[in-house]
Amino acid sequence: MVDADLSQAVDVDLDSDDVVTVETLNDEIADLIDEQTDLNHDYVVGDVSGCRDSNGHVHFDLVFEDASIHCVLFGFRRSQTTVEPEAEMQVAVRGELSFYEPQGSCSILVTDIVDMGESDYSQIYAENKQLLAEDGLLADERKQRLPELPETIGLVTSADSDARVDAVTALHSRYPDVDIKVQHASVQGPDALQELMSGVATLDEDATVDVIVVTRGGGADKTLRVFNETPICRVIANTDTPTAVGIGHEDDRTLADEVADHRFMTPTHAGEIVPERAALEREFEQLSTTLNTAYQTTVVNQLTAHATDLDNAYQSTVTARLQELGASLDHATERHIEAELLSLESRLNTAYQTLQQEKEHEDELEATVEEVRDEAETEAQAQIEATRRRYRLVIVGLVLLVLILAALYIL
Q: Which of 33, 51, 127, 313 is paired with 26 by a 20 to 30 Å CA distance?
């Protein structure tokens, strides 16, 4: 039968009278579900996945192996339940099966939740993590440092995904010159594990790739489980090329993140792998200025230090030379004084000897003078006596003459 709502459709021969719209089909599915009372079970058991709060309501997926169904715990019923669903829980939920026609999705409108303990997948996750830890793949000391300025980045993700666009945009926005090699791999589904492992291995063999980035966008917890599988974790951990992994949303954490050399939160944060070119240019300018200033300061400091050292060396040399010359001068002075003293002593001895000789000669002269004086005095005394005698004789003669003359006069 042809649905009435197709009256405005383009006239196309579909070679059938049984044609309906999506709306009609969803209405029929909703009616069918409402009529099937066998679909209403007391409890449905599964693991909580993708739990999130929206406008006071709790949305989550109930997962068992590869099957899942959406569940909604409305806000007015949250206070009536004793358990709040959380990731890594296994729960039994009671509720009404509901089909949402506009989106063609089936959900359980939860009225009660029973905590069944740790989820089955939580145990698998813990076992996988334990195996990786025992092999030392989670140890921080084995992680490689990422290159500071990679020239080529290998990107493992779905080639037609928003994650690829976000990662490439983030990388080029920070450093436009970086080359990016995209290795396509499914990030969920049956082929995901093998394609992810192959993508990482292929890029690891490429010598031009400096760092390997594995990323995907957000999703339900069950869609991220491939990144908790030990085979892909071992491939990532054992690469020779440094690796960086960013899976899901900010709160998502996978074992692939744990074994990688670096973890970033979302594909948009892949830009962290490269430095920001503008920041590098600013840093370069600052470093250039700092280097010039440091060079000038170093030169001035070195010149000042050398000048100070030279002055100190000059002062030390001059002081040492002056001390040496002073010592030599003192020594020369002492020798000169000693020589002068010896000379003076010799001269003094000579003079003394001469004086002694002269004194002896003077003594001899004085003795001679004394003898001569005594002789002269004796001779002079003798002359005086002789003169006196002559005078006496003269006087006597004169007296006699006077007497004679007187006598003659008288006569």
A: 51
